[in-house]
Design goal:
By secondary structure, this protein is mainly α. The protein folds into 2 domains: 58-167, no CATH class; 173-267, no CATH class. The protein contains 10 helices and 6 strands, in the order αααααααβαβαβαβββ.
């Protein structure tokens, strides 16, 4: 209850003002954080380190690696520059290979004072953290073991600009996989239509928890394409694929392990992918 001199009312008003001031201050702090997160330039990763070496710029690389430097502007990697370089606008090559002054002074040479991501994928993993995590899964291509490298599947320099992501993506995915998996992509009379979408429709290329790098290990992988909505003449709970009731068949295992559709990549004798 307010006193005759209005003391209680004055205190309430002062508390409200302090409350509004705190809200306003909190709003300003939140706005500052959001602006900072969205507008400030931050170094998330650093280029490879070569003790004692300094950045020399792309033009110096051009003297020996002419074809690579000419094609490089067409690669998405050309947008990567080291902000700490002496020539920050021209240090795209060294963002992945490390500063090149010692390499140049030594007269070049494979592996001389230079990082080669083709031999050591760690330079790629520095930026591609999600891919690095996938290679740590139980099933993966042997890149961490040094039996493969990223360049076998991806073009980091921009030579093939007709591919999606200007070479970084596996656009001709079946052809790329065919360089090793020739039996799986051979020409057949009855082709599995999924191959037209690419091997990655069913396989995770970098790593998976499933055998053979499969995206799924049960019938659901096949049912993503082969599921059918039952018509009015079909009893509820029945699974019809094509003209065949698969309700009991799916209990025998996956489509490719139940002795049915074992020719998953294609068959020369049966349109239903059987041997």
């Amino acid at each position: 209850m307010a006193t005759p001199d209005g003391t209680s009312s004055g205190r309430s008003q002062a508390r409200r003002l302090r409350h509004y001031a705190l809200l306003a201050a909190g709003t300003l702090v939140l706005a500052a954080v959001l602006v900072a997160c969205s507008t400030l330039n931050r170094d998330i990763v650093a280029p490879p380190e070569i003790p004692g070496a300094k950045f020399v710029g792309n033009q110096t690389c051009y003297d020996c690696h002419t074809n690579y430097v000419r094609a490089f502007p067409f690669s998405p990697h050309a947008r990567i520059h080291s902000p700490t370089a002496l020539m920050p606008a021209n240090s795209g090559c060294e963002s992945c290979h490390g500063p090149g002054s010692l390499h140049v002074a030594a007269g070049g040479g494979r592996g001389k004072f230079i990082v080669n991501p083709g031999r050591d994928p760690q330079a790629c993993f520095t930026c591609h953290l999600e891919t690095h995590a996938q290679f740590n899964l139980p099933q993966h291509h042997p890149v961490p073991e040094g039996k493969m490298n990223c360049v076998q599947c991806h073009d980091p320099h921009g030579f093939d600009i007709m591919k999606p992501a200007r070479g970084l993506a596996m656009s001709r995915v079946n052809e790329q996989c065919a360089s090793c998996h020739r039996e799986q992509v051979r020409a057949v009379v009855f082709e599995h239509a999924a191959l037209r979408e690419g091997c990655t429709t069913c396989h995770q290329p970098h790593g998976s928890i499933n055998k053979k790098l499969l995206t799924q290990t049960d019938q659901n992988m096949c049912l993503r394409c082969h599921a059918q909505v039952a018509g009015p003449a079909i009893r509820p709970g029945r699974l019809i694929i094509g003209k065949t009731d698969h309700s009991a068949l799916v209990n025998r295992g996956t489509c490719w392990t139940s002795t049915c559709h074992t020719a998953v990549h294609g068959s020369n004798v049966d349109p239903y992918l059987r041997y």
